[in-house]
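debug: dumping io for the single-chain case to check the tokenizer round-trip. Nothing else runs in this session.
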Amino acid sequence: MPLLLLIFCLFWSFPAAAIEFSRFYPSLEQQVAQKKYDQAIRQLKKSKSEFSGNHQVLYQLEMGMLLHLAGRYQESNRLLHAAEDAMEDFYTTSVSSEITAFLTNDLNRPFEGEDFEKVLVNLISALNYSLLGQPAEALVEARKVDHKLGLLEARLENEKTKNAYRQDAFARYLSGMLYASMQEWNDAYIAYQKAFEGYQSYRRYYQTEIPPNLGDELLRLSTRLGLKADRAKWAKAFPKAKGKAIPPGYGEVVVLNYNGLIPIKKPKVKEIFVHVLGAPYLMKISFPYYLNRANPVAYAQLRLQDAKGKSYSGQSFVVENISAIALRDLRDRIDRIESRAIAQATTKFVAIKALEMKANDDYGFLGGLAVGLAGNIWAFQTDKIDDRGWRFLPGEVQMTRLWVPPGKYQVEVEYFSSQGRSLGAESLEQAEVKPKRVTYLKTRESPSSGFDPDMRLASRYRNTPDEEPSPISPGRAKSEKTNRIELSTPLAMTLNDSRGQAIPTQSQGGIQFSWIQWGKELDYHWGVGFLTFSSILPNTNPDQQLQLGNSYFTFDFRMDFTPSFYGGVDLGLGSSWVSCASCNYSSQGAAIGLLVFGLEGESLGGVLKLGPYSGSATAMNAQGGMSQSLTWSGTLATLGVTYKF
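debug: decoded output
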């Protein structure tokens, strides 16, 4: 069967399976949170072979950031520069890799990073040089940022694409600081002006306010350069700024605070109808969304103390909200991503159908069935999103700037929640401040040193309505509400009368509905259920054959053990009933408590319930003669299916 052999070789020749990056990161991120950077570096090095080929740049970025956090700045820059060179090479991706990616998934394209990640390569490199005390080299990286942003702006204008991320205000702000440290006042003033424009855009798109001391810098420099009109403009724009001159001989301490972690990409499935080969089909496509991660730190307090015990303090401010940039960037591109995903899925579907029809003509029904099955398996295996991203980036960067007299200082940073609750403090290395020089320090908040119980309230940056909710943001439970229909029917049951004797029973079937669930880890359901069953009581004639049953209202409590497996309890309270051909009847309450176990996929699932039930009733014949009181108890097992929408 040459054709079938060719088809199977075609399906399995593409590298459908991709590396599961999720298995590397949890332990690494825990080590980063505990500031065990060298340990994380060693562990990542052991996994280097897994990041070969299309994932090489990702390894270089992650290792470069870990080395930066570990204070190994020169090594970090070597990795970041290598990643930058590879990104530029991948920009002109080969046609073959594009075709392979289109027929499988985008994980088979070389990873070249998002636009903001490409810019952050140079920004982190500039910070490396700043921390090494090399402002001239840092300025080279800042100029690269300026060049990249210019190319990005031109590309977006040419594509007529409305992306919010077109400039980087923090890069402009840092450039101004670097120029000022080298006493290049004109360039510093221009950079600060661009930073002001950038932060106006940041305020609109990312809810990042203009740094409070940017007004002081603009006032000082416009005064120094004799720009009276500009000074009046900045005085109006920053009414609280004083723009006082720096005392002669003072030096500056700059502390960078890295807070939180950047959001991570997760798959989202969407069902759409497409017309293929003249017929409508329901097709599932996968595309990414960002899962935001909590940042409990609202601000940090910097304290410097000299040898004589004199203290200086300052509060940090946000200069780069990377989480907000990532969320907005994906939102701006999601229509293009969905269009590509639809085109990929449709292309696969058409190819599979065409091959299936050809095989059916050449080899009959079984041949077509085999090809269709192989094609569907191949399509399922290749239905993966590109979830790669620079995950060791912080969620945000904050900065504290203090001008102090020259000397050696003990440095302490304390973190606070949005309610002003201390999350812990740490001491940094001793800082030596030199006249008219800038001393850079960095730190990273550590959740292990303090945890904000009001973290839900401290998360200041919310996802927009068309994005997935953050796992810890307020109101998450309601925003994740899904509807569920559950249909259950009796599977097996036992019944005993009041004397404990078994009563033969026969199921008549049943149905249960439940809906409204919310929460990710704990699910609450409520619904209305009806279960019926019949029984022929001993020593009765056909006219007195009794049928027993009950209906009840349920409250369900369920817990997710895994994303697809859950368990819980159904508690029911309702009424029992009895009927026969020649009887009147009355009924009393029936209580039911069932253990629940279920498995669920994206939409469909199964549920098994097992538990006791009981009831009682009084029946009498039509002539008002002999009456019979009935009390029963037993166990019930039901099997059902669920559908979520």
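debug: round-trip ok. Residues 3-18, 447-481, 515-524 have pLDDT under 50 and may be disordered.
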